[in-house]
Amino acid sequence: MKIYKGIVLSILLGFSICGCTDFLQHEPYGLQGSVNFWKTEADVQKVLDAFHEFTYKEGVTGRGLMWFENCSDNLVTGRPQAEAAQIKDFQMSASNGRDAKDNWPYMFQLIAKANDVLRNVPGMDVSEQVKNTALGQAYFYRAFAYLWLAPFYGDNGPNGGLPVITEKTPTQELDQPRPASVLTNYDRIIADMRMAGERLPYFSQLDMRDYGRPHKAAAWAFAARAALYAAQYDAKYYHTVIEFCDKVMGMDGADKRELYPDYAGLFREENNFCREYLFSLLGNAIEGPKFHGMSFQNKGWGLYNTWGYFQPTLELYKAFEEGDVRRGATILFPNEHIKFVGVDVTYAVGRWSSESLSGMTFRKFMSPWEESDCIGKTVSSNMDNASNVLGTVLIRYADILLMKAEALIWSQGEGNAEAKTLLNMIRKRAGLPENTGATKAQLKNERRCELAFEFQPSRHIDLVRWGDAQSVYAKPLHGVKTVLKDDDTFSHVEEIEIWPARNFNPKVNHVFPIPSAEVAKSKRLEQNLGY
Prior knowledge:
Layout: H1 2-8, H2 41-50, H3 58-61, H4 66-69, E1 75-77, H5 82-88, H6 103-120, H7 128-153, H8 183-199, H9 216-230, H10 237-249, E2 277-281, E3 310-312, H11 314-319, H12 325-330, E4 331-332, E5 337-340, E6 343-346, E7 361-362, E8 392-396, H13 397-412, H14 417-429, H15 440-450, H16 459-466, H17 469-473, E9 477-484, E10 490-499, H18 516-520
Antiparallel strand pairs: 1-3, 2-8, 4-7, 5-6, 9-10
Helix pairs in contact: 1-6, 2-7, 6-7, 7-8, 7-9, 8-9, 9-10, 10-13, 13-14, 13-15
């Protein structure tokens, strides 16, 4: 495809930012195959630093694929927007202008960068340690990019998978057709993550300046996720889920992974790399992922320009059991307090009125905005940017426990003893009784509550792969309306319908349309059926 040929001969755009990790500051690297490049260890380092360029793209780590997650019963679009409504209502066209379209080209750029490394580094006169690190990161990011896209665009028929492009694909053959099944992609992802795990260091072996780069546990965790997504088509992959979860769970010493004891305190800068951490995208107060600022109150009552896009539904709120500490840590409900830019805000009361369609908003990732001096210190002073110091979590240890529990329940039956133990670990931290029966329904709800509103994994993808999407989306969504007393203090809330029932066609809407611009660049890339 034209875009892939352009990537192979591209010069990466470099830009300077300041941050806690040196690799967030990178320079451009030269033309692939250039006689003046691929010579030194410094050349290798430039390429590895450039792997992280996608993390600053608003359409990738801001709204991006959250438009697809917004289809789930956890979220509604907080601000009226016609094309966003089309996506949520499963009426999306391939020419839809929302920035979900940016993910396909950026991820194939990342694949091209990884292939550059895999093609050129083995023949370089550099140390074996440098080669291993470079190849490990290249395998990791190639798999990472495919895993980013595959669940949303590929299936096991009738559409198939995503074009497979490797370091061995000749330039004149970059316009590859789609394989018959997305399992081809998942097999490649699992194999690449396995290769990455063999070459990457343990997290404990990373210099602090390299925190945020791939490591063994991250590779194994993403391999487990790929296998879990593949298992919807072939149950044999549950064994692979268990294999890779066991690798992470079996780590000890300085690399032991475990749940952070306080769920409400987990999502704070000081815990970016706690023992629950497996992999996040990093930023700072100058540049980085924008996701955390996408929601909360639109325009932030004039204190900070948060964007108000994705808001929680009452269905999500009610999914939490009474006494579940995760509910208050995740959702800000009317008449509850939050510290925002140094101000004690009583949400939806008085001057702090709610602009959210659901009457609620998300609290989960708002810690960088707490202090009065946060602007320019922990959050960007450019209020159209919203980058901040809190890592955008993509996978953590709780997900490992949930993935293994799911694999055990689906492969060995409900009531599995080990699955009970794993789910009770999750419930104990949430302040709930350790009384799970390890049923499918209980697993689904624990996963929903534990991982709500995280950038990955996706509640929508979970509903699709479980076969629940059609029945769930056939029900309307609800929120609350805050009622105040005559003196403008809180009285009560009333339940209201905020989004009508939707028609989800499981033969079409299980995937989204490939952006029309990408199809137009190719002679062989076929659009998903129904779009």
